[in-house]
Amino acid sequence: MKLAVAAALALTVSTPALAAGSLPATVVPVLYDIDVTPNAQAMTFTGSETVEIDVKAATGTITLNAADLAIAAATFDGKAVPFALDKDKQQLVLTLPAVAKVGRHTVGFRWSGKINQSAAGLFAIDYTNQDGSKARMLATQFEAPDARRFAPMWDEPAFKAKFRLKATAPAGQLAFSNMPAASVAKQADGTQLYSFAETPVMSSYLLYLGMGDLERKTVQAGNVEIGVITRRGVVDQGDYALAEAKRLLPYYNSYFGQPYPLPKLDMVAGPGSSQFFGAMENWGAIFYFEPELLFDPKRATESGRQRIFTVVAHEMAHQWFGDLVTMKWWDDLWLNEGFASWMENKSAADLNPAWKADAAAVSTDREAAMGIDATAATHPIIRKIETVDQIGEAFDGITYSKGQAVIGMLESTLGPDKFRDGIRRYMAKYKFGNTVTEQLWAELSAAAGQPVAEIAHGYTLQGGVPLVTLTGARCTGGTTTATLAQGRFGLDAASKTPQTWQVPLVVATIGSGETRTIVTGPATTVSVKGCGTLLLNKGKGSYTRVLYDQPGHDALVRDYTRLPLEDRLGTLADDYALAAGGYQDLSRYFAVMGQVGAGADPLEWSLVSGRLGGLNGLFEGTPLATPLRARTVAILGPVLQRIGYTARPEESPLVGNLRENLVGQLGANGDPEVLRQARSYVAKLSTDPTAIPPAIRQPILATFAANASAADWDLLLRLTKAETNPVAKNRFVSLLGYAKDDALAARALDLLKTDTFTAPQRAALLRAVSGEHPDMTFDWAVANRALVEGFIEDSSKASFIVGLGGGSVDPAMPGKINAFAATMAETSRGPAKRVVSSIAVRKAAAERLRPAVQTWLGKSA
Questions:
Q1: For 498-530, what is each residue's pLDDT tens digit?
Q2: Could you tell me the strand order of the sheet in which 514-519 lies?
Q3: How far is CA 303 from CA 306, 561, 727, 861, in A?
Q4: What is 702-754 written as a DSSP string?
């Protein structure tokens, strides 16, 4: 699963508790034969199934999962048996007339269920066709525990089984699942009965069904048919994803050492949105929301195109890590998500070298992980999961981004060849099975000939970020000897509790030698050839912050332009974070930033732009806001002038990304020229929906919306209502919430009480308003809680409203969030604790950084 960016740190699930591995292992499913008939208009469906089971130990009861289903009948070996549905436990219990003997039996069920408006179980996606007519697509979303909303199942990842699925679709509609349709039979009433081929053994959360007025386009990659499925009229926008999937499939076949085992791989585009995910790795039928899969050359930016590659690469990696080999329980979710995140980056680096994916990850994914891991909100990568709430909370930046960073560190430490050999051993040994993390460590250790777990445990069994400090260095006889101290980097008091790790580190002297070491205990001494500037964590392959003494940092500033790109980015990132944590003054960051010149790599300028944006956010509403905005415009404006507003033929993709970044950042800071461009372009949209060049479409729209006047906002609303492209419409809906003006924010909130927009659109609009108006939005949502919970997804109820207040600087907000959380079950309060923690971290950072910012701006206290 690929998380939606805006929600990646705020996901939870607010359904009832469940004990880890709560189903008895005395009965296991072998083969499901499921038949469902949806009624899309009525938003209901009926189903029946026969399940072949293996009774491992004699039993008088059979327990499986079911939720939101009205069970009409249950049978055991063809005979009706009594049953009871425990709604709190989401379990269905059959009472047998006699003790079932060990061996194969069958159970059967008939039921009815509801089609949801949000992405849980079987759900509907409403959209408008190009001709203005209304349409409805059906899809399923089962991760984590929502297959039980579709059919009675052993809905835990360790209960792997085969599936045969049949589904009745209206005449003329396409239905599709994990496997190809073995037959499609026209029935007397004109409907079509799709019978899909039997799947390999797999976990229940990977089962998929979709149907609607859709098109499919295919390419062939060896013996596998790769398809893209879309609403009518836009299937050609899947060409880029198809081409990249065709490149990725042989790449993954080779890397994992196991060929993709299904005959087809469909990529399904849904024209909707979710509050917590962008795509889902159903085996052989990956579901994506449209922006994550379809490339519209008239509206999509360069970063959007790259995003499509990385999401496709992420979900395809899951076909091995997650689908072929699945974690035994949700404790080890990182085996799915951390590895898929790492593979999306590795494949991008290998197949698209111009993107400099390895370097980009230093300033994006690594920083995202450390930003959470260095606060009280952190947790171990491998965490104990005992409730459904905790399953949802595990889908966060620690699981994804820290997991990715730790895997990259292990590859760097072991070497890419030995690491890949260990992965191949793991895939070969456990394919079609379930694992825990220790089994992966065992295979990597066997391949590398060294005890991987000794290093890995420190990063996976405890939260927190290591800090390696240079306490002194001297050069004698052409060799530099350095003393390195180990500590813990934190942004708040809780995250500074002492811990130790085994920190793999590459230490180098610029232009001379390098050596590998493992920093252990309180102090480690390392020697490296050469007497030049000392560079710790060269390549930034290790998951750690590094802190230099003053002479060491002065040398880095002097030789900044001689550093490799990864180290330039890592130095910028470390220096800012160390200042935010109180380990050094922000002047060190400004000194390094001053070395980023006109000819610097676009990734460096993107990082500088992001950090300046962060400073502007910290001091918004204070006396420093205006001069800080002016300094930001003065620094970034000339960079945009150099690269221009128009994409040039054959320019680097990174320049395109930087252009988007700069237009957005300058627009947010009120740059008059960017705002003039934005108003000029948007005025043309009424007659030409694609008037804005795709290279700058998104940041131009965001600039216009953020700085909107009442008349501008009215124009946006008219454009929103007139738009028929569902993806563009969803974007316009969010833009209505970007206005900085309080009155316009209030008008956006008023729209939520009307039926102007769909449920997912209203959720997106409410979240958008919170970006500039967190206090207003949080208070409004609390006052209108029933309304809000009616249009947000069940999986977001514990996190959505509390997350709205996360950007507040009001000292009263933490208390208000805690008071709201107190109305929820104890197991649902984790997101509130994280939001309160993030508010405290941001406040503390502002206090620490203010003196240095004042000095930099030439302002007195």
A1: 999 999 999 999 988 899 999 998 889 999 999
A2: 514-519, 503-509, 534-535
A3: 5, 26, 16, 40
A4: HHHHHT--HHHHHHHHHHHHH---HHHHHHHHHHTT---SHHHHHHHHHHTTS
Res 21 pLDDT > 70: no
Residue with tokens 């039979």: 185
**pLDDT, tens digit, for every residue of 733-755?**
999 999 999 999 999 999 999 98
Q: Which tokens go with 421?
A: 């050999």
Distance between CA atoms of residues 407 and 342, nearest Å: 7
302, 315, 337, 411: which is the annotated catalytic residue? 315
Pull the structure tokens for residue 469: 């400090």
Strands 279-280 and 523-529: unpaired
Helix (H, G, I), strand (E, B), or coil: what is residue 586? coil
Distance (Å, whole) CA 513 – CA 530: 6
Residue of 798, 849, 827, 359 lying closest to 603 (CA atoms): 359
Distances, alpha carbon 534 to alpha carbons 236, 473, 588, in Å: 52, 8, 17
Alpha carbon distances (Å) from 185 to 180, 188, 189, 610: 14, 10, 11, 56
Does the structure show a pLDDT above 70 at 69?
yes
Q: What share of the chain is helix, strand, coil (3-state, %, to 5)?
A: 45, 25, 30
C-alpha closest to that of 678 among 656, 705, 653, 649: 705
**pLDDT score of 860 more than 60:** no
DSSP 8-state code for residue 202: B
- Binned at pLDDT 50, 70 and 90, residue 7 comes out as very low
Contact (Cβ atoms closer than 8 angstroms) between residue 347 and residue 553? no
Q: What is the pLDDT of residue 15?
A: 39
Write the pLDDT tens digit of every residue in 581-639.
999 999 999 999 999 999 899 999 999 999 999 999 999 989 999 999 999 999 999 99
Are 363 and 351 a contacting pair, CB within 8 Å? no
What does residue 835 show for φ and ψ, rounded to 5 degrees? Answer: -65, -45
- Per-residue pLDDT reduced to its tens digit, 310-357: 999 999 999 999 999 999 998 999 999 999 999 999 999 999 999 999
Q: Exposed/middle/buried for 767, CB within 10 Å: 0-12, 13-18, 19+?
A: buried
Q: Measuring CA to CA, how many Å separate 57 from each of 53, 91, 100, 332, 397?
A: 12, 20, 8, 28, 41
Residue ranges of the alpha helices (H) in 189-281? 239-256
CA–CA separation, 68 and 44 (whole Å): 11
Is 315 an active-site residue?
yes
- Section 773-790 average pLDDT: 95
SS3 state of residue 362: helix
| 41, 171, 393, 795 from 137: Cα distances, Å | 11, 14, 29, 21
What pLDDT does 861 receive? 46
> What is the Cα–Cα distance from 451 to 453, expressed in whole angstroms?
6
Which amino acid belongs to residue 170? P
Percent of residues, the chain, with pLDDT higher than 90: 82
Q: pLDDT tier at 3 (50, 70, 90 boundaries)? A: low
Q: How many CB atoms lie within 10 A of CB 516?
A: 14
Q: Is 511 exposed, middle or buried (0-12, 13-18, 19+ CB in 10 A)?
A: exposed
The 10s digit of each residue's pLDDT in 167-180 is 999 999 999 999 99
Please say whether the beta carbons of 117 and 139 come within 8 A.
no
| Residues contacting residue 209 through CB under 8 Å, at least 6 positions apart | 36, 122, 138, 139, 140, 150, 165, 167, 175, 176, 177
What is the length of the chain? 861
Interatomic CA distance for residues 604 and 597, integer angstroms:
9
154, 109 contact by CB (below 8 A): no
DSSP H helices, 644-696, are: 653-668, 672-683
